[in-house]
C-alpha cells in the first residue's frame, strides 16, 4: 500500500566507507580519513542529491586488539567530528550536519556550547547524535577501567540532555537587542539561569552563546536496548537504528512510535531512519561481483576483531564453523546490537563465520545488493510498509559506492515520487519537517 | 640599537573588539559576535597583511553581575573558539589559528583530539593557548562552587599538557602506511601507548588521530604569576602577556627568557608577544578624538564590573576618586593581572576612576595613541629594546580599528624593515621560526 510523502535520506560517513577494509577500494583517497577534501567531496555529492544530512559516528579511543589486527585496523587515524563538521559548514550550503558525541565522557556545558556554535556556524543545520559509549577502549582514556553500567549510562544521558537543552534556553530568542544607540546589548528579563542540580550534574549556566538558530540542534539517538528505546522515545527526533531486515525494522519502528506517542509526541516528530548498505550494479551480476570485491578487502583478523567488539565475545578459541548460540552473556557495552545480531543469527542459522562476515559487511545494518531498480523498490517498499521514515545510506566505500547510489538509485526513487529533488528549507528542522522547539521560558510567560 | 630580524604579529579577536563597548562602534556588524562572516572578514584582512596568527580568547561562563551590567554586557553571545576556528580553516590559507582552552575544566583526551584535528584541517596552522581559568563564573558550570586553588590549577595544567603531547606522539609521523595492496594500514611498531598515570590524570591512549602536521600544534601561554611564568618557561612557544608599558615589558621579557634558558630552551623558541592596543589617527588630534569616541562606548557600570573581575575586588562601597591602594587581598583568580594593574596604579598614582578607565580601554594591555609613524616607531623601539619579539594587536574595534592598523601602520613597519610582506612557510611553526617537535618515541629509537 503506497504511503504519502517522501522519504528522508542521510549519508553516513565512516572515513573510507562502512565496510571493513573500505580504505583499500580504488575510489578512496589514500589519506582520506584525515583529509577534509575527502569529506567535503562526499558532502558535495550528497548536497547535489538534496540529502537531508551527513552523519559522523564517533568513538573516544583507538582500536587495539593484538598486533596483527592493529596493523590492519583503519579506524585509528581520523578527525574529531565536531571540528570536522565545523570546517564543512564553510564548504556546504544546505545539508544537515550530524555529529556524534557521548554523554558518558563529556560535560554538558561543553557540548551545549559546541553544538550551539555549530548551529550558528551552519545557519541552523546542526544535529547531535547522543550516544552513551559502546567501546571498551574509551574508559581508560578518562581515568576509568571500564564503562559505567549500561543503565547508569542511560540515566546519565537523559539528565545530560536535559541540562543541555536548558542551557540552550538560557537566553530567549530575542534576548539580544544590541542597540548601539542606547548601549543596551541584552534584555536582562530574557535571561534565564538553568541552575540545574541533579544526580549526575550540577550546572548553573547560563550559556554564553545565543540560542541556536534551530532553538535546539536536531536530536538524534540510536537506542535499541530497553533503556535506549526509552531515551529515544523521550527525546530523539531522528532515530538511527540497525535493522538487518524488514521484519525486524517494522517491529522496531512500531515500538518506537508507540513509546513516543505514550509520552505525547507526534509520529512525524520522531523519524525512524535505519541504516542501509546499498551495493548497486547495473546488472544483478555486477552487483554481486561488487559485493565480492568489497568483501575481499577485509582481512579475517580484522573481521574477527570487529565481531568480538560488536558482540563483546572472545572468539579466539571458538570453532568458526560451529553454529552461533542463541544467547551470550549479557554485555554491558553494545547491548542492543548484540541482541539484534543474535536474533538474526538464530533466524538464519548462521555459523560464526557467516555472522562474522555479516558484521564485517555492515555491522548489523541491512545490505541490499542489486540493480538500481531493485534497490529503489526495496527502499520504497520498506517506506510504504512503515518500517522506516527514511534511511541512513551507509555506503560500503566512499566516495565510490555513494556516487553510484546517487547517480543510479536516487533517480529511481524520484521516478517513484518518493524522494525530493531540492531542499525545501534552510534549516535541518525545516528540511525534516520538525518543529522548532519554543524556549521553555518564553512558553512559560505566555 | 637596532635588532636583527622582523617582528611577529598576531591579531587578537575579541568579538567586536577589545575595548569595552566596542560593539557600539559603527564599524562592527550588529550580530558580529555570532556571525562567522565577521570573523572571516577580520581573518582576511589579517591574511592580506601576512599576520602570523589570529587569536581567540575564551571563558566558560556568562558574565553576570547585577541587572544593569548584564543588560550592557556584550560578551555573553559568542561562539565557541575551536569550532569557530575549524570553520575558518576553510576560509583562510596561511594564517595561524590560536584557540584558547582551559586545562581546569577539560579532559586531555578531548583537547588533544580537537587540536590535532584542527591542525589537520588547517594543514598545520593550529595553536593552543593554554589557560587555567580566571573567571569566577566558570566553576558553577562544572559542578564546583569556586575555582581550584591557583597553584593547583597550574600543577594540573602542567600535567595536562604533558598528557596531551604524549597523546599527540601516540603514532609516529610515518606510522600510517596505508598500503592498499597488502591491506596493511599501520606499522604497529610505530604505535606507542602513553599509558599516563599521574596526580590529576590517568589516560591510557593512544589517540585516534594521526600525529598533527606540526608534530604538536604551537603552544601558547600567558602566565605571569610565579606559577604562570614557570609554566611558560617550561612549555610556551609563544608567550602572550599584558605589559602596560615598556618598562614592565622589558622586565617580563628578560625574566621569561632567563627561566626558559635555565631549562635548556633557546631564546628564539620562546617568543614573547605582549598585547598592544593601537589607536591610529592620521594626525595626533584624530587619534585622540578617536580614543575619546571609543571610550564613550563603555557605560560606567560595565567598566566597574570589568574592573571588579580583573582585580577580584568589590567596588560597590569604594569612593572612585580615592587613590588605588598599593595592595589588595591576594586573589585566587587572575593573580598576575591584579599584580600588574596594582603596580601600574602605584607608578602613576591612579585613582580608582582612572584605573577603571584604563582597564575598560584595554584590561591592562598597552594603549598606543598616535599617528602611524608614532605607533610604528613605538613598536620598533620596543622590539629593538628586546622587550618583545612581536605583538598581539588587540584592536579596540573590529574590523574598524584593525583595518586602520593594517592600512596605515603595517606599511610603516615594513618601511623600517621590521615586518615581512608575505608568508614564509605553510605551517604556523614555519612562519614563526619554531622547530617541529620530534616524536619522543622516534627520538628514543635513534
From TrEMBL, chains A, B:
Q: Does the keyword Repeat apply?
A: no
Task: Give the Pfam families listed for this entry.
Answer: Bac_luciferase
- List the InterPro entries hit by this protein, alphabetically: Diverse_substr_monoxygenases, Luciferase-like_dom, Luciferase-like_sf, NTA_MOA
| Domain (Luciferase-like): residue spans on this chain | 30-387
UniProtKB keywords? Flavoprotein, FMN, Monooxygenase, Oxidoreductase
* Highest taxon of source: Bacteria
Tell me if Oxidoreductase is a UniProt keyword of this record.
yes
Which family is this sequence assigned to?
Answer: Belongs to the NtaA/SnaA/DszA monooxygenase family.
User: Under which name does UniProt file this protein?
Assistant: LLM class flavin-dependent oxidoreductase
What species is this protein from?
Bradyrhizobium agreste
Amino acid at each position: 500500500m503506497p504511503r504519502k510523502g517522501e522519504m528522508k535520506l542521510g549519508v553516513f560517513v565512516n572515513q573510507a566507507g562502512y565496510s571493513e577494509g573500505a580504505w583499500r577500494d580504488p575510489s578512496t583517497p589514500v589519506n582520506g580519513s584525515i583529509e577534509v577534501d575527502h569529506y567535503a567531496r562526499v558532502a558535495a555529492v550528497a548536497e547535489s542529491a538534496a540529502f537531508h544530512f551527513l552523519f559522523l559516528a564517533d568513538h573516544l579511543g583507538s582500536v587495539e586488539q593484538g598486533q596483527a589486527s592493529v596493523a590492519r585496523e583503519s579506524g585509528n587515524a581520523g578527525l574529531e567530528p565536531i571540528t570536522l563538521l565545523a570546517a564543512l559548514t564553510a564548504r556546504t550550503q544546505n545539508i544537515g550536519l550530524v555529529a556524534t558525541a557521548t554523554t558518558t565522557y563529556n560535560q554538558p556545558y561543553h557540548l551545549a556550547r559546541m553544538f550551539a556554535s555549530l548551529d550558528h556556524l551552519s545557519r541552523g543545520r546542526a544535529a547531535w547524535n547522543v550516544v552513551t559509549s559502546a567501546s571498551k577502549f574509551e574508559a581508560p582514556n578518562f581515568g576509568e577501567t571500564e564503562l559505567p553500567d549500561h543503565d547508569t549510562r542511560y540515566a546519565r544521558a537523559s539528565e545530560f540532555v536535559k541540562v543541555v537543552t536548558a542551557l540552550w534556553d538560557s537566553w530567549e530568542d530575542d534576548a539580544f537587542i544590541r542597540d548601539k544607540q542606547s548601549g543596551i546589548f541584552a534584555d536582562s528579563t530574557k535571561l534565564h539561569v538553568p541552575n540545574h542540580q541533579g544526580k549526575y550534574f550540577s550546572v548553573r549556566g547560563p550559556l554564553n552563546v545565543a540560542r541556536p538558530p534551530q532553538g535546539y540542534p536536531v536530536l538524534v539517538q540510536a537506542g535499541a536496548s530497553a533503556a535506549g528505546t526509552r531515551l529515544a522515545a523521550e527525546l530523539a527526533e531522528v532515530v538511527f537504528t540497525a535493522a538487518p531486515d524488514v521484519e525486524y525494522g517494522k517491529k522496531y519502528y512500531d515500538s518506537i512510535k508507540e513509546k513516543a506517542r505514550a509520552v505525547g509526541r507526534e509520529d512525524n516528530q520522531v523519524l525512524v531512519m535505519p541504516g542501509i548498505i546499498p551495493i548497486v550494479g547495473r546488472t544483478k551480476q555486477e552487483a554481486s561481483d561488487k559485493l565480492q570485491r568489497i568483501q575481499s578487502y577485509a582481512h579475517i583478523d580484522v573481521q574477527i576483531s570487529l565481531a568480538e567488539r560488536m558482540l563483546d565475545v572472545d572468539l579466539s578459541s571458538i570453532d568458526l564453523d560451529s553454529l552461533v548460540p542463541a544467547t551470550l552473556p549479557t554485555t554491558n557495552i553494545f547491548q542492543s546490537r548484540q541482541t539484534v545480531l543474535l536474533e538474526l543469527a538464530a533466524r538464519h542459522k548462521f555459523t560464526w563465520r557467516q555472522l562474522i562476515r555479516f558484521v564485517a559487511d555492515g555491522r548489523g545494518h541491512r545490505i541490499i545488493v542489486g540493480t538500481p531498480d531493485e534497490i529503489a523498490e526495496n527502499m520504497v517498499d520498506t517506506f510504504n510498509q512503515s518500517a522506516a521514515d527514511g534511511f541512513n545510506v551507509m555506503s560500503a566505500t566512499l566516495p565510490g559506492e555513494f556516487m553510484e547510489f546517487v547517480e543510479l538509485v536516487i533517480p529511481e526513487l524520484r521516478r517513484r515520487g518518493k524522494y525530493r529533488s531540492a531542499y525545501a528549507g534552510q534549516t535541518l528542522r525545516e528540511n525534516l519537517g520538525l518543529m522548532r522547539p519554543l524556549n521553555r521560558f518564553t512558553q512559560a510567560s505566555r
